[in-house]
């Protein structure tokens, strides 16, 4: 019986052994095997990845040797073959000098990987060696291609391409043989390679490029998402491309909206009328070591009008059991909004520019309703424009058990909402968020989010058992993460390390080692 754990270890190690590659030869015919209805395609440049990670050349020898030893431990008797492949990866029969493609078909009915074959005979020799270790079945020839099964994965190949296919829903891999054989027979003007999306991917810049559409979502999830949205919207035409670049001390992801669906484009145009450009005024309200900070600029009146046009939201607003004037609250919001705090300590405060404080009067109408809770919930006046909302047990509203309070009100032309009253109008001593490396990038953006990962790691020393701390400790030397939206089409994410001189991939690899 094929051991799934052995397969997983083997594949993980093997992926990292593309380290000693030379210049490109041959063509791109293998790209024709990509399915035309792919809802997500990811292109990986192995040459660039290996070079930036430090696996190539003398500097990567130790890491490559360790990975080779790991492979040998799971493949007794195949040491000679592994050594040969480590010395020259082309001995595997796979051309790691060409891009690797990962994909998922429409509604996630299947997932796969595509690689170029440089030598079909050597590839078959590799699979035969793996079959002796019960990592895969003995290769067979059928439907114009050779194939084998590795756990839940079908591997099919010709002299041009190696195709790995799996059913995310748990179907038998053998059932995918017909699909695989059809894909491997596609010509240059067939499949995803013949689409304008593939042309756009090929023109992109990045070590990894991904292009996905909403058609990736399984059908059972589509109906709830489409509630209140025109049935004319085509999920396959709502798409985005991401270009990932691993640089010195940082990873950058450039997002480009490629949506062509007129319904979605109209919705986005409407949203752009609601959200203006952030001024960054709330940068000065928080110290430089703040855990996270998110800011947008909103016209509340237009936001309310947009929500009213959506039948689901409109029904909630019109038939709400809460005696609150939502229109008055929304209409008072105009300008920058920001929320900041400490994720691990569970403390936050939100600020928003408001035109006046008259809308607070509508919260007085909540008091008679809260009286019906028998004292389990209270709205307490804490000044002329300040309130405390208190609950005996937060679990009544799906929050943490125990006594819980929120404070809100208006101070100096700004609305605030927090779970820690000490944060209201707290003075900043020393450096503020404006002094952070990303502080000068905020002004003029549609949306800006920053997370101080170094501060999060420091705070995390008091929360050693939190699961997210395991992930953060795994990657050493993290500094901060920023996500910014420039306009309706362009967004950007940047993960920055403290060490700005080493490529981030090399740092990540050292964390693994």
TrEMBL record:
Q: Known InterPro entries for this protein?
A: DUF4836 (IPR032276)
Q: Mind telling me what this protein is named?
A: DUF4836 family protein
Which organism is the protein's source? Answer: Bacteroides gallinaceum
């Amino acid at each position: 019986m094929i051991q799934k754990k052995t397969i997983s270890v083997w594949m993980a190690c093997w992926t990292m052994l593309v380290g000693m590659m030379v210049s490109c030869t041959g063509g791109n015919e293998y790209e024709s095997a990509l399915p035309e209805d792919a809802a997500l395609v990811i292109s990986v440049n192995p040459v660039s990845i290996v070079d930036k990670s430090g696996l190539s050349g003398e500097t990567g020898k130790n890491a490559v040797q360790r990975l080779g030893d790991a492979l040998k431990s799971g493949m007794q008797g195949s040491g000679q073959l592994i050594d040969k492949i480590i010395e020259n990866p082309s001995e595997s029969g796979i051309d790691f000098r060409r891009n690797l493609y990962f994909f998922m078909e429409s509604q996630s009915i299947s997932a796969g990987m595509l690689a170029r074959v440089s030598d079909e005979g050597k590839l078959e020799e590799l699979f035969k060696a793996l079959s002796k270790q019960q990592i895969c079945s003995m290769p067979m020839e059928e439907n114009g291609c050779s194939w084998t099964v590795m756990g839940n994965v079908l591997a099919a190949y010709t002299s041009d391409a190696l195709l790995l296919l799996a059913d995310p829903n748990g179907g038998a891999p053998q059932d995918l043989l017909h699909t695989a054989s059809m894909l491997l027979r596609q010509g240059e003007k067939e499949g995803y390679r013949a689409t304008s999306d593939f042309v756009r991917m090929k023109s992109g810049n990045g070590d990894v490029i991904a292009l996905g559409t909403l058609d990736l979502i399984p059908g059972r999830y589509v109906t709830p998402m489409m509630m209140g949205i025109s049935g004319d919207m085509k999920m396959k035409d709502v798409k985005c491309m991401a270009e990932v670049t691993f640089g010195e001390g940082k990873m950058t992801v450039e997002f480009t909206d490629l949506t062509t669906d007129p319904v979605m484009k109209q919705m986005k145009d409407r949203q752009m009328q609601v959200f203006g450009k952030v001024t960054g005024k709330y940068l000065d309200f928080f110290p430089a070591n703040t855990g996270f900070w998110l800011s947008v600029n909103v016209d509340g009146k237009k936001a309310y009008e947009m929500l009213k046009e959506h039948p689901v939201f409109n029904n909630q607003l019109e038939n709400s059991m809460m005696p609150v004037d939502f229109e008055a609250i929304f209409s008072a919001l105009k300008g920058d909004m920001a929320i900041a705090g400490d994720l691990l300590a569970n403390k936050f405060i939100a600020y928003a520019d408001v035109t006046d404080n008259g809308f607070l009067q509508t919260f007085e109408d909540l008091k008679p309703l809260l009286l019906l809770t028998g004292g389990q919930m209270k709205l307490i006046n804490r000044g002329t424009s300040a309130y405390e909302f208190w609950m005996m047990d937060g679990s009544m509203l799906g929050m943490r058990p125990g006594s819980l309070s929120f404070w809100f009100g208006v101070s100096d032309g700004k609305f605030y909402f927090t779970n820690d009253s000490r944060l209201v109008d707290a003075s900043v001593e020393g450096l503020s968020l404006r002094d952070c490396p990303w502080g000068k990038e905020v002004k003029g953006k549609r949306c800006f989010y920053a997370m101080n990962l170094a501060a999060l790691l420091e705070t995390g020393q008091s929360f050693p058992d939190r699961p997210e701390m395991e992930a953060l400790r795994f990657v050493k030397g993290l500094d901060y993460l920023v996500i910014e939206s420039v306009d309706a089409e362009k967004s950007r994410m940047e993960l920055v390390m403290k060490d700005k001189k080493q490529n981030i991939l090399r740092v990540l690899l050292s964390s693994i080692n």
